[in-house]
Design goal:
The protein has 503 residues and is of the alpha/beta class. It has two domains: 2-165, 3-Layer(aba) Sandwich (Leucine Aminopeptidase, subunit E, domain 1), CATH 3.40.220; 183-502, Aminopeptidase (3-Layer(aba) Sandwich). It is 37% helix and 20% strand. The chain contains 15 helices and 21 strands. It has helices spanning 30-38, 42-48, 86-101, 122-137, 146-151, 170-195, 203-217, 226-231, 235-241, 295-310, 355-370, 383-389, 401-414, 450-459, 487-502, and strands at 2-6, 17-23, 27-28, 59-63, 72-77, 107-110, 159-163, 220-224, 249-256, 265-269, 271-275, 315-325, 336-339, 345-348, 374-379, 394-398, 418-420, 438-439, 467-471, 477-478, 481-482. Strands 8, 9, 10, 11, 12, 15, 16, 17 and 19 form a nine-stranded mixed sheet that branches. The structure holds ligand BES, manganese (II) ion and zinc ion.
């Protein structure tokens, strides 16, 4: 689909559909009132008949109105005006996308971008409207045969114009659109990789995709093979990969378009292409969803795609440890002790707590190779985080409060929210081991604070960096569909970071 930003009167648009909003208790927005006037009160009389009250999510398509040039007017309920907030704005646009799909309209002009959302501006409106529309339009059909793929309904809408109130608003609208299309591209890439099954999206496949991405956008990528990981003494990472015949890969991306010599931001993502749990095997129910255990790694690739698309002036490195957590005669056993790249010994008391084992070596690699200004990891790390926060917020941990604040703000801006959980030192004794430097699970208070225990383990490896950890176990997918999160949060954080560093 193609998007445009323009400024014009709703009654004069020669398009298939004009989209205007109505607030609850039949309270038309300015654009709806303009259409009402041009049509001799058509909207007012429809509201009086009770066909559109303005409830959030309500829609009504009006055909053949006289006095306007468009074929249809789509009325969108917005809820009560005083309750109209960011969530309502996004929801209205998701509704628009679904409704337009059921009409034959090939082009439309959207006037919901004129609405006032407290604390937000036109740039935000266009950005979020685009993201909502793109997200609704996403389909994953890569694994269907030609035949069933053709049976899927094709979207008819080809052109969508966001209207802005004044011509002077055009640059802000354009900026929001450009950013959103780049984010949407990154989100779609992340979803595509995440939705693929484990037999297709293997560590080798992810590594290959990373290299293709880097070629397409002209940044650097390398893939460290097993022998190189052995040389680096990544004993924790390698131990997880031992139980599978798919060799491990460490993807390393370098996008260096910021100030020369400036320390980079490092993004580290868990690329576990299938997590059966290992010898501490998971129950069979829903185990298919563990193909999503590489969503963190996919989000690193998606963020690079968006950043490269925007040509953001930042130094960014990406590190994605990829392997499978299966079980065979060589697999990790409960009680095994391994030595990490950082030199810490780890007692593996549960082979299903493997994410932290692959990440700790990736984090050490980030620290030692790049000495990053900021390091952010993202991982589908703990079921406990899903219990704590559900699907609405990623768990955020940070060893520095200004970094936490910057990420929380980016989450609010993008609608890809995170919620902070503590990294207090009081939790550290809970991963004490009888035999090694520490254990990979809690040895005290077994099921308490599982998400924090996971983060506390990673914190042992990140003390020298300004570091944050996003536990995306609850947000990276819902209902067997990848969400592309936390790409919007990260790209927004990087947009803010680049803007601040330009000053
Ligand atoms: N990949 C899982 C975490 C997960 C579970 C994400 C369910 C999303 C949904 C991770 O490797 C894991 O198995 N974690 C264990 C840790 C435990 C053994 C301490 C968990 O959460 O049960
Ligand atoms: Mn696991
Ligand atoms: Zn896992």
């Amino acid at each position: 689909m193609e998007y445009f930003v323009k400024s014009g009167n709703p009654e004069k648009q020669r398009v298939a559909c004009v989209i205007v909003g109505v607030f609850d208790r039949r309270n038309p927005t300015e654009s709806a009132a303009t259409i009402d006037q041009a049509t001799d009160g058509a909207i007012g009389s429809i509201m009086r008949r009770g066909d559109m009250d303005g409830k959030l999510g309500q829609t009504l398509v009006l055909h053949n109105l006289t006095g306007v040039f468009c074929d249809r007017v789509l009325l969108v309920g917005l809820g009560r005006e005083r309750d109209f907030d960011e969530a309502a704005f996004r929801k209205a646009h998701a509704t628009v996308a679904r409704t337009l799909r059921s009409t034959g309209a090939i082009d439309a002009v959207d006037y919901l971008t004129h609405l006032t959302v407290k604390g937000r501006d036109l740039h935000w409106n266009v950005q979020q409207a685009t993201l909502a529309l793109e997200s609704e339009g996403y389909r994953f059909d890569a694994m269907r045969s030609e035949k069933t793929r053709e049976d899927l309904p094709k979207p008819k809408l080809e052109r969508l114009t966001f209207d802005v109130p004044r011509r002077s608003d055009l640059p802000a609208g354009e900026k929001g659109l450009t950013e959103a299309l780049a984010i949407a591209r990154g989100v779609a890439l992340t979803k595509d990789l995440s939705n693929l099954p484990g037999n297709v999206c293997t560590p080798a496949y992810l590594a290959d995709q990373a290299q293709k991405l880097a070629e397409a956008y002209r940044f650097k990528a390398k893939v460290l093979e097993k022998a190189e990981l052995e040389k680096l003494n990544m004993g924790a990472f390698l131990s997880v990969a031992k139980g599978s015949s798919e060799p491990p890969k460490l993807i390393v991306l370098e996008y260096l378009k910021g100030a020369k010599g400036e320390a980079p931001i490092a993004l580290v993502g868990k690329g576990l292409t299938f997590d059966a749990g290992g010898i501490s095997i998971k129950p069979a129910g829903q185990m298919d969803e563990m193909k999503f255990d590489m969503c963190g790694g996919a989000a690193v690739l998606g963020t690079f795609a968006a950043v490269a698309e925007l040509k953001l002036p930042v130094n960014l490195v990406g590190i994605v440890p990829c392997c499978e957590n299966l079980l065979n005669g060589e697999a990790n056993k409960p009680g095994d002790i391994v030595t990490s790249m950082a030199g810490h010994t780890i007692e593996i008391l549960n082979t299903d707590a493997e994410g932290r084992l692959i990440l700790c070596d990736a984090l050490t690699y980030a620290e030692q190779t790049y000495n990053p200004a900021v390091c952010i990891d993202m991982a589908t790390l703990t079921g406990a985080c899903v219990v704590a926060l559900g699907a609405h917020a990623s768990g955020l941990f940070a060893n520095q409060s200004s970094l936490a604040r910057a990420l929380l703000t980016a989450g609010e801006q993008s609608g890809d929210r995170a919620w902070e959980l503590p990294l207090w030192s009081e939790y550290e004794p809970q991963i004490k081991s009888e035999f090694a430097d520490f254990a990979n699970i809690a040895t005290v208070g077994s099921r308490e604070a599982g998400a924090i225990i996971g983060a506390t383990f990673l914190h042992k490896f990140t003390k020298k960096m300004k570091w944050a950890h996003l536990d995306i176990a609850g947000t990276a997918w819902t209902g067997k569909k990848a969400s592309g999160r936390p790409v919007p949060l990260l790209v927004q954080y990087l947009l803010n970071y680049a803007a601040k560093h330009e000053e």
